[in-house]
Amino acid sequence: MLVRQADALILDVVDLHEKDRIVAFLTAEFGQKRGVARSARTKFSRFAGQLQPLAKVRAEWSEKEGRDLVRIRDAQLIRPAALMQESLEGILLGTYLAEHMAQFAQEDEPSSHLYRLLDSTLEAMQAGVDPDLAARYLEIWVLRLTGILPVPRECPICGSPLGRRAALLENDGAIVGMECAEGQTWTPVTEGQLELLRRSGRLSLPDLAQDSPSTDTLRRTEDLCKKVRRNFLQAELRSYRVMKETLSG
Ligand SMILES: [Zn+2]
Q1: CB 63 within 8 A of CB 210
Q2: pTM for the full model?
Q3: Residues with Cβ within 5 Å of ion ligand 1?
Q4: Residue partners of 148: CB distance under 8 A and separation at least 6
Q5: Which of 38, 64, 81, 176 could bond to 180 as cystine, CB 3.0-4.6 Å?
Q6: Å from CA of 165 to ligand 1 middle
Q7: What would the mean pLDDT of 70-84 be, rounded to a whole number?
Q8: Are strands 31-37 and 20-27 parallel, antiparallel or unpaired?
Q9: Which three-class secondary structure string do you get for 198-235?
């Protein structure tokens, strides 16, 4: 049996039987893990309120070879998920951000980039950065870290520098020059979007928020990321669908 410790971001918490919970969490060192927190549902549990989605904890767990689930022994709160729990929008958005990690981080493989991305995004949101901008930043960076949305500088087909406008090819999710989009199904990528994609590549989220893009650019970029992501996963994230349906209803 192996006992491990790491800072962890809680991704998901599900009730198991009468007393226990199953907790998915993300660490920089060990990637994504799932574990049982025994008696976490009982009134005087030592886990108390620590195991909330998107809380940051110092976790200790034990692992046995060949077992999928680890056993969570301790969780000390480093940063609560308070803001995320305050409104329906916050809960839906939090679930959506967490599902990105569950989908793109591997089990037992170091995931320091994804970990740092989620950690710094949550930190910035707690410091008052607009959740709309924060969500777009995380979407862009998850796709960039996965290698499917490079910073748009030149057209990947002909190599020419991209001008003020570009096109997103619907069938493969690439951002190309207008001349290379001819004859294909595409949606426009505006100057504002290109600027956001480039600035987010070199600025931290709080720095990006100093000069926030327009609402129109944010909506278009949400749509662009949705298409690129769906093209890659061949499915939409469940939490995204739920968030959109709930908020439009
Ligand atoms: Zn081209």
Answers
A1: no
A2: 0.93
A3: 155, 157-158, 177, 180
A4: 173, 228, 232
A5: 176
A6: 12
A7: 89
A8: antiparallel
A9: HHHHHCCHHHHHCCCCCHHHHHHHHHHHHHHHHHHHCC
Identity of the amino acid at 219: R
Query: What tokens appear for 165 in the block?
Result: 């406008």
How many whole angstroms from 163 Cα to the centroid of ligand 1? 10
Instruction: Classify strands 70-79 and 31-37 as parallel, antiparallel or unpaired.
Output: parallel
Tracing tokens 């960076």 back to the chain, one arrives at 141
User: Per-residue b/e over 26-40, b at no fewer than 16 CB within 10 Å?
Assistant: bbbebbbbbbbbbeb
Ligand 1 center–CA 161 separation, angstroms? 8
| 107 contacts 67 by C-beta, under 8 angstroms | no
CA 74, 79, 84, 85 dihedral sign is positive
Could you read off the pLDDT of 15-67 as tens digits, one per residue?
888 889 999 999 999 999 999 998 887 777 777 678 889 999 999 999 998 88
Q: CB neighbours (10 Å) of residue 244?
A: 14
